Amino acid sequence: MHRKRVFLVDDSLVVRQMVRDILTADGTTTVVGTAEDGEEALRKIPEARPDLVLLDILMPKLAGDHVLQRMKQDPRLREIPVIILTCQSGGDEVAKGLDAGADDYITKPFDPVELLARIRACLRMRALQQEVVEQQRKLAAAETLKQLLMTLSHHINNAAFAIATRAELCALQGPEAGCEELITVCQHETKRIQAVLEALQDMVVHNNVRTKDIPGLRQRILDIEEHVRRACVGPTA
User: Fold this and answer.
1) CA gap 206, 224 in Å, rounded
2) Angle 180-206/214-233 helices, nearest 10 degrees?
3) Taking a C-beta distance cutoff of 8 angstroms, is the pair 32, 7 a contact?
4) Is-cis flag, bond preceding 81, omega within 30?
5) Longest CA–CA separation in the chain, Å
6) Alpha carbons 87 and 10: distance in angstroms, whole number
């Protein structure tokens, strides 16, 4: 079973050791790092990459609410859930932590069962938030793919119409219509269209719509449409 990674920030060695023992005994979480003040925490947390931070509010050098503010400003840290540890059951200390972005708080001295329950609840909430974000990403990707397919379909149809029109003219005029170049262009551009369609199929099958790839695919189809247009119009110009 994968243990969730917890980073602990508290200026009390006794508290740090107690929390470590509680989490180790529980078996579902593990302490991946500790810090005894806010400045040390901000140095260590990015490297530790925890799933959750337990953060004391009253600490030397940099208080917990200031640590929270700095975390929320850092793209690497802003999504990490934080439970503040406080000696007060309410009042300014708790309010500062929650206003700074804490997800929950627990009062010291805390009951081990309550601590573990709050950690699990916080991690569940984070997992749900991540699931919502992922679903939103998939919906956005699906809409992007839909718009891309509509655009590409339009330009491919334009190219196909030009080819069909020119082919009918070639059939009417016979060999003197000068269709050799058109045949060569069609053979080449058909392969390019096939490559684009294969790229689109890969996006659909693997649900891997990368925004950075879309302009390139669109430009490839526009180029194909233009080459076909020139080949079709050129002989009769």
Assistant:
1) 26
2) 160
3) yes
4) no
5) 96
6) 12
pLDDT tens for 185-195 read 666 667 777 77
At residue 32, the 3 state secondary structure works out as strand
Q: How far apart are CA 65 and CA 61, in angstroms?
A: 12
Select from 15, 14, 19 the least CA-distant residue to 112: 19
Give Cβ neighbours of residue 232 (< 8 Å, ≥ 6 apart).
162, 163, 165, 166, 182
The answer for 224, left when phi > 0, alpha when psi is -120 to 50, beta otherwise, is: alpha
- Residue 74 confidence class, pLDDT cut points 50, 70, 90: very high
Q: Say whether pLDDT at 49 is over 90.
A: yes
Buried b / exposed e over 209-223, threshold 16 CB at 10 Å, is beeeebeebeebbee
Give the CATH superfamily of 4-110: Response regulator (3.40.50.2300)
Kindly list the domain boundaries of the chain, sorted by start residue: 4-110, 135-236
Other C-beta atoms closer than 10 Å to the C-beta of 97 total 26
For residues 76-103, average pLDDT: 81
Which is more confident, 40 or 145?
A: 40
Least reliable range by pLDDT among 31-40, 64-73, 87-96 = 87-96
> pLDDT at position 113, please?
93
Computed over every residue of the chain, the mean pLDDT equals 79
pLDDT 10s digits, 23-35 = 988 888 888 999 9
